[in-house]
DNA sequence: TTAAAGTTTCAATAATTACTGAAACTTTAG
DNA sequence: CTAAAGTTTCAGTAATTATTGAAACTTTAA
């Protein structure tokens, strides 16, 4: 399976970006390949298209499954496994976002909680405790907010996103409503 | 300069998380150290506290400056440079967020725009073009939205964040208002 | 000026992370 | 049951990324 120049371009770019998105080059390329192809692909097709080893594909699939980004399908009368993106583009983006929050925010939140409980002993640590509390509160807000977004339906999210520059107006509106009641 | 166990814990943790936040261990530790200390620190103090080389500190500072996370200060009668966080915790988080968007989203947006302009030649590429368009639209929405958030004042952001579960109510409200007018 | 204090650069090297490919394992058709 | 088809694992190695430390550079006080 060789790729058209345009598709190859796209796949290579996603490979380069891969490490910035939280995985590695190979895995970036794999997601791109699966997303850009309407039909599911076999592990061998992936290896051949990307010119990487079969073992590497296997490890990549495993990693992608841990991110819940791929699903396995089968074609009747064919025992090979076929891989496809697990949901719409939007679903995939959502999962990456969520997974990254888990890896980038949650462990810190846990540590900070513990440190806050410890309290400040020496007076020299007063400032440090304050800073830790501030960071904690910020991260907790981000966590709650992102959980909130996850709960919205795609349509609601679209609406929210499209609010654009009127976000601040909505906030003002909310304020006024709260004051009245 | 040696660190108290609690502060050392915090600094080491931020080091481990560093690579997940978009920089490396040393830089993660440096930010943590600067944030946790009320007084600005010299490059030598940083090197000594973190037990890393002077050169490494210099490169780290440079990187942190490219992220706009540190500022240089001077103490009258002392020619050494003192480093401190460039703004509040909130400011720093904001900058990291923004910088990451630039590195993680913008390059892809540029590529996709070009690819969309190229158009689809072979009928086999129809599907690919559709996917590319979808990804493009998603990324553009994210970009616009995040620019929007940047424009809000810290207070407005606080309000927005604290809306929490009432976000969907606000959206509904907006819908109703739009229909009336 | 100049030399002492301070900072940066970068080639060499260490540490980490990713990839290969062959062997081991699993599944299924016959 | 068995052998062919398919998949996974992982030790060895390649590629990448981070760090050191010594030399070069810059700044300033005297």
TrEMBL record, chains A, B:
The name this protein goes by in its record: HTH-type transcriptional regulator
Keywords, in A-Z order: DNA-binding, Transcription, Transcription regulation
InterPro entries referenced in this protein's UniProt entry, alphabetically: ArsR-like_HTH, HTH-GbsR_regulator, HTH_MarR-typ, MJ1563, WH-like_DNA-bd_sf, WH_DNA-bd_sf
One annotated GO molecular function: DNA binding
Domain HTH marR-type, chain residue ranges per copy: 22-80
Family recorded in the similarity comment: Belongs to the GbsR family.
A Pfam family: MarR_2
């Amino acid at each position: 399976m060789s790729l058209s120049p345009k598709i190859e371009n796209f796949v290579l770019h996603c490979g380069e970006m891969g490490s910035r998105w939280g995985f590695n080059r190979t895995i970036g390329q794999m997601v791109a390949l699966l997303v850009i192809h309407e039909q599911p692909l076999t592990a061998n097709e992936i290896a051949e298209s990307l010119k990487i080893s079969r073992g590497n594909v296997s490890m990549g699939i495993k990693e992608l499954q841990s991110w819940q980004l791929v699903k396995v399908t089968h074609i009747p009368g064919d025992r090979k496994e076929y891989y496809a993106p697990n949901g719409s583009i939007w679903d995939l983006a959502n999962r990456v976002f969520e997974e990254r929050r888990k890896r980038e925010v949650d462990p810190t939140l846990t540590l900070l909680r513990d440190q806050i409980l410890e309290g400040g002993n020496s007076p020299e640590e007063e400032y440090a405790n304050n800073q830790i509390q501030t960071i904690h509160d910020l991260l907790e807000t981000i966590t709650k907010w992102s959980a909130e977004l996850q709960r919205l339906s795609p349509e609601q999210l679209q609406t929210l996103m499209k609010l654009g520059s009127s976000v601040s107006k909505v906030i003002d509106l909310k304020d006024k409503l709260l004051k009245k009641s």
